User: What shape does this take?
Amino acid sequence: MNICIYGSYSKNQDEKLLNLSTNIAKELCIRNHTLVYGGGKNGLLGQLAKEVHNNNKKIIGVILDDSDMESYVYKECTDLISKKNMSERKHYMEEISDGFIILPGGIGTLDEFFEILVLASKNVLNKPIVLFNTDGFFNEIISFMKMLLNKGMMGEKIFDLFCITDNIKETFDYIENNK
Assistant: This one.
């Protein structure tokens, strides 16, 4: 399976999150999946890609045409695909992926999460989505979404479209059993 993983590219990550990325990569490799991600070499996802590479598994990096090859791009990707803008990049990743894992990240990660969630809610995307809530990282986002539900701004069904967990095995089991 092609598993798309979204998360932080920031260089300022604590060891616990970097170790989490390493462990997720190891499980992805044990289960013989392909990593699909944004092609960067830094942060949580850079760490993840390096571990997948160290295990000789396939990595599909999807970058922008104007990506800085020296400071941003992880050149060890098995396939490095370039797209002209963010919309095309996200659409391509959504098309080739069989499931999604959202790790801690910033505004870009949230954008990617909410885009696939909207697509799933409109029955455009029918693929498993996991919000990896390590140390309660996404608790406030989840609370905000519950407030939206309580105010009638969205339906209950939205919470049926993704799994919230902080367990690596459960993450991959959910994706594999809901493809």
Observations:
- The chain has six helices and seven strands.
